[in-house]
Write a structure and sequence with these properties.
Radius of gyration: 17 Å
Strand content: 15-25%
Strand order of the largest sheet: 2-1-3-6-7
Structural class: alpha/beta
Helix content: 25-40%
Largest sheet: 5 strands, parallel
Mean pLDDT: 93
Number of strands: 7
């Protein structure tokens, strides 16, 4: 399987980068190929352009500004996102990746009747998120309703693909966890990814 792994963290020595490295090494050891798309290192601009927004509902959407990233998404069989959750949401650069790359004609089509969007990511069979939060589990799940999981699973994955293997693995309370708990989480990621 060919996996597009999208890393969204500004610090090269972040915990997210460590998770991405372990996941990549594990996938490659199992015979998969991994295309690591480090949004910060590649200088991805998350801002939707005037041309992109202006052509959003046109038949010919202008995706020329992000065509290299679109081709990498189209070449993948699976998508693994690695990112921290900030303010119960995606980092802005990852949100911009969805806004610009998961575009009309790429990830979905507008329904001719104007009712629903039609999924186009038929090549993606696996859609996983490896993430962390600064808040404890109960705040994320009970108080906030786990918004990132809802957005990824019910929004992006469901609207852009069909029959995807969706999973999200999160280390909660990241700012206060012990080094031992971080290591256990890394081992959990390694064990989970080794099943792909």
């Amino acid at each position: 399987m060919h996996i597009l792994m999208v890393l969204a963290h500004p610090l090269e020595e972040s915990f997210a980068a460590s998770v991405a490295r372990i996941a990549r090494e594990t996938l490659e050891a199992r015979g998969h190929t991994v295309d690591l798309l480090d949004l910060y290192r590649e200088g991805f601009d998350p801002r939707l352009t005037v041309a992109e927004r202006g052509s959003y509902f046109n038949k010919d959407y202008d995706a020329s500004g992000v065509s290299p990233w679109i081709e990498r998404l189209r070449a993948a069989d699976g998508l693994v996102l690695v990112f921290p959750q900030w303010w119960f949401n995606f980092p802005a650069i990852l949100k911009g990746f969805f806004d610009r790359v998961f575009a009309p004609g790429v990830a979905f089509d507008h329904d001719a009747a104007g009712d629903r969007i039609v999924p186009r990511l038929r090549n993606i069979r696996l859609f996983w998120a490896l993430t962390s939060t600064g808040s404890p589990w109960w705040v994320v799940h009970l108080y906030m309703g786990n918004p990132v999981r809802r957005l990824l699973k019910r929004g992006i994955a469901a609207f852009c693909g069909k029959g995807l293997d969706f999973r999200m693995v999160t280390l909660h309370d990241m700012d206060r966890v012990t080094e031992a708990k971080r290591k256990r989480h890394i081992e959990r990621v390694r064990a989970l990814v080794s099943r792909i």
